[in-house]
Amino acid sequence: MSGHKKCVVSPSIREVRSHEVKSVAEIHALALPNDFLPSLGVNPLEEYYAYSLELGVENKAKLLGAFEGERLVGFCQIAFDSISFTKIIKVNTLPSLFYSTVFRPQVAMNGLIQYFHAVRFNEGGAEIAFIAVAPACQRSGIGSMLISVAMEESREKKINWITTKTANKNLSLYYQKELKAQVIKRFSAVGQKYEILKWAVTP
Prior knowledge:
It contains 7 helices and 7 strands; from the N terminus they run E-H-H-H-E-E-H-H-E-H-E-H-E-E.
């Protein structure tokens, strides 16, 4: 993936395909370097998003990508049911998990705290689990496009509300201003302050 190329055309939004999972993992690692999953390395990230595609087959999640031609420039993972992170913690992931815990304890602790503050799903709800745009393409409206499509997908599934979690204050303000989201919970991790937001999916 050429993550440093400038965005020059309006992207199209569609579901990510299995051969594009690596590009999703690369964008996640570049755009959200302080997340817990990137601290485990690219392979566990790829395994996580491959697992997300499996959930898509079961109608439990959808992985949307923003594409300029065939180049992925952003993505949004929307979950319609709980996602089990234990599904990707395999034997070959344990060395990375150990390394992260020992050498990046702040990131590991943040991951643990977020796990205990995970969204509890009720009938009629969905969660934007991850959304990221390639650094060269940020502030170009791609994130808004992805959210709009995610909301349309939710309407089709008769979802009543969407939640998301973020430590990005500007993103939180966007949700509140543009989507009329309400902050339903705040919590602190090591060096980060998170907000959980919720908004209605209107017809």
